[in-house]
Backbone:
C-alpha cells in the first residue's frame, strides 16, 4: 500500500513533502522566492507539480529530482492528466501533457484572469470563472489584486473543438456550476442568468449537447 | 434632465464619520439575501424616458452590483433603443459616472475620494482618459507598462444592448474589514465635453472576515455635488450643461449689462 503524503507550499517558495503518519519530511524543494500557487500530483502520485506566478516545476517523487520546468503557470490539469491550461494577457491556452505542446488557444485576450475552474468528468469540457484582479500578485495572494471597477464572468469551453460555447457565455453566469456525472449537462444550483433580456434567478441546467438552458424544478435538483 | 427617484433619502458623504451614518440610511440586505433592488425613473424633456434598476448579485464568493438603465420611451409601440433615445434627446451617448467617496480604514497609497476608474485606470487595470465608468475606446494592442488587466466587458459598446445600458461592479481585493462607499450616476454625454446627470445611487461594499466582498448598503438618490462637477472639469475638462434657470439668469444679466452700458454711453455723449 502506498504511503500517504502531506504536501504543502508556502509564501517563500518552499514545497514540503511529509509522510502523513510519521510526519517525517521526505523532501523540501526550494522554488523561487514567492508564493507557491498550486500543487498537483500526477502519474499515479509519482510526479509532483508546483506552480508560482509565472512558471511551473515538476519533480519525480521517487528520486526527489527535478524533471521539468515550464515557463508558465499551469492553472489546471484535466482529470485524465492529458491536458492542462495556461493564461496570459493574450488569452487562455490548452496544452498537452506530458508532451507540453500547445494544443490550441481557447479564447483571446486581453481579458480577466482565471479565478476558479472545473473540468467535466470526461474532460471534454472546461468551465472557468474569470474575475478582475486575477491573477493576483504575490503580495495580495490569495486575495485578488484590489479593484474598484471589477467584473466577473464564467465561460464554458469544448476542448474537442477548442471553442468557447457562446450560447453559455450569453447567459452571463457569474459563478461556477457542476457537471453531471455523464458530462452531458452543466448545472447551476442557485444562479442568476440573462435570458430574453431579463436577469433571472434560480436553478438551471445547461444541456451540453443541444446548448439549451432550462429552469430546474425543485424535484429535478 | 433629472432623475425622478422613488425613494428620496438625503445623504452626505464625508469620511469624518458621516459615512457610517449614510450606511444606516441606505437599505441593507436581509441575512443571506442579495441587496436591493434600488430603482428610479429617469425623466427628460418633461417625460419619463427610462428606469434605472440595480441589485446585489453573488458571484463565486464575492458580491457585486449589477443593473441597467432601461429605455421605456416608446416609438412605434415598442421601447426605443438606447441609440434612438440618444438621438431623441439630442445627445451623443449615455454612460455612467462613478466615484469612490471614502475608504475606511485608509489603504496606504490609495488617496480617496477619486473618480472610478481614474484617468488611465487604477493599479494594473487599464482605463481610458474619460471621466465615465465604461471605457469609450479600446486600449492599444500592447497594454502600457504597469497595466496588465483590461477586458472587453469594460467597453461601453459591450454594455449597450437594444433598449438597455448595462451596469456592473464587482470590487474586491482590499484588506479585510475595509468599507468602500461609492456613488454612481447615469450621465448623458452631449459630445464636445459637455454632459448632464440623470440621477444616481449610493452603495457600500465591505470586505468581510473571509476576504470576500459583501454589498452592505444600497440606496439613493445620490446628490451630484459641486465637488464632483469640479473634479470632472479639473481632471478631464468636461463641463456640466448649464441648467435652463442658469441660462435664464445669465440672459437677464447680459440684458441688464447691455441696458446699463447703453444708458451710460448716452449720458457720456450728452
Residues:
Amino acid at each position: 500500500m502506498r504511503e500517504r503524503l502531506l504536501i504543502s507550499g508556502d509564501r517563500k517558495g518552499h514545497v514540503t513533502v511529509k509522510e502523513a503518519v510519521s510526519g517525517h519530511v521526505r523532501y523540501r524543494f526550494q522554488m523561487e522566492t514567492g508564493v507557491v500557487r498550486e500543487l498537483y500530483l500526477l502519474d499515479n502520485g509519482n510526479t509532483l507539480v508546483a506552480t508560482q506566478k509565472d512558471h511551473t516545476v515538476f519533480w519525480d517523487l521517487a528520486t526527489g529530482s527535478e524533471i521539468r520546468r515550464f515557463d508558465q503557470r499551469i492553472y489546471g490539469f484535466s482529470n485524465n492528466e492529458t491536458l492542462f491550461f495556461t493564461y496570459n494577457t493574450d488569452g487562455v491556452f490548452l496544452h498537452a501533457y506530458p508532451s507540453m505542446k500547445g494544443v490550441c488557444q481557447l479564447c483571446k485576450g486581453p481579458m480577466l484572469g482565471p479565478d476558479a475552474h472545473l473540468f467535466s468528468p470526461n474532460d471534454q469540457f472546461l468551465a472557468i470563472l474569470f474575475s478582475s484582479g486575477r491573477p493576483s500578485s504575490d503580495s495580495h495572494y490569495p486575495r485578488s489584486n484590489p479593484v474598484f471597477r471589477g467584473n466577473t464572468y464564467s465561460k464554458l469551453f469544448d476542448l474537442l473543438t477548442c471553442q468557447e460555447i457562446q450560447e453559455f457565455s450569453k447567459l452571463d453566469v457569474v459563478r461556477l456550476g457542476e457537471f453531471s456525472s455523464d458530462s452531458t449537462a452543466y448545472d447551476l444550483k442557485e444562479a442568476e442568468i440573462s435570458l430574453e433580456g431579463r436577469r433571472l434567478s434560480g436553478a438551471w441546467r445547461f444541456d451540453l449537447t443541444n446548448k439549451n438552458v432550462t429552469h430546474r424544478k425543485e424535484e429535478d435538483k | 434632465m433629472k432623475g425622478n427617484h422613488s425613494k428620496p433619502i438625503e445623504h452626505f458623504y464625508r469620511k469624518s464619520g458621516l459615512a457610517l451614518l449614510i450606511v444606516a440610511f441606505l437599505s441593507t440586505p436581509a441575512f443571506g439575501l442579495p441587496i436591493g433592488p434600488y430603482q428610479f425613473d429617469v425623466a427628460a424633456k418633461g417625460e419619463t424616458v427610462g428606469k434605472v434598476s440595480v441589485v446585489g448579485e453573488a458571484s463565486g464568493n464575492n458580491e457585486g452590483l449589477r443593473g441597467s438603465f432601461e429605455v421605456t420611451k416608446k416609438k412605434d409601440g415598442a421601447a426605443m433603443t438606447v441609440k434612438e433615445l440618444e438621438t431623441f434627446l439630442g445627445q451623443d451617448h449615455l454612460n455612467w459616472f462613478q466615484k469612490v467617496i471614502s475608504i475606511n480604514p485608509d489603504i496606504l497609497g490609495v488617496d480617496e475620494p477619486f473618480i472610478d476608474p481614474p484617468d488611465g485606470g487604477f493599479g494594473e487595470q487599464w482605463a481610458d482618459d474619460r471621466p465615465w465608468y465604461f471605457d469609450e475606446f479600446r486600449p492599444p494592442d500592447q497594454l502600457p507598462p504597469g497595466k496588465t488587466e483590461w477586458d472587453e466587458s469594460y467597453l461601453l459598446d459591450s454594455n449597450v444592448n437594444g433598449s438597455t445600458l448595462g451596469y456592473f461592479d464587482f470590487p474586491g481585493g482590499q484588506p479585510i474589514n475595509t468599507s468602500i462607499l461609492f456613488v454612481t450616476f447615469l450621465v448623458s454625454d452631449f459630445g464636445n465635453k459637455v454632459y448632464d446627470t440623470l440621477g444616481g445611487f449610493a452603495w457600500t461594499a465591505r470586505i468581510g472576515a473571509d476576504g470576500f466582498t459583501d454589498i452592505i448598503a444600497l440606496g439613493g438618490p445620490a446628490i451630484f455635488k459641486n465637488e464632483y462637477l469640479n473634479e470632472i472639469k479639473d481632471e478631464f475638462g468636461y463641463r456640466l450643461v448649464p441648467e435652463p434657470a442658469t441660462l435664464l439668469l445669465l440672459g437677464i444679466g447680459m440684458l441688464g449689462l447691455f441696458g446699463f452700458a447703453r444708458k451710460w454711453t448716452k449720458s457720456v455723449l450728452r
Q: What stands out?
A: Chain A has a mean pLDDT of 95. The first helix of chain A runs from residue 166 to 169. The CA atoms of residues 177 and 188 of chain A lie 5 Å apart. Chain A touches chain B at residues 89, 110-113, 115-116, 129-133, 136, 140, 142-153, 174-176, 192, 197, 199 (CB under 8 Å).
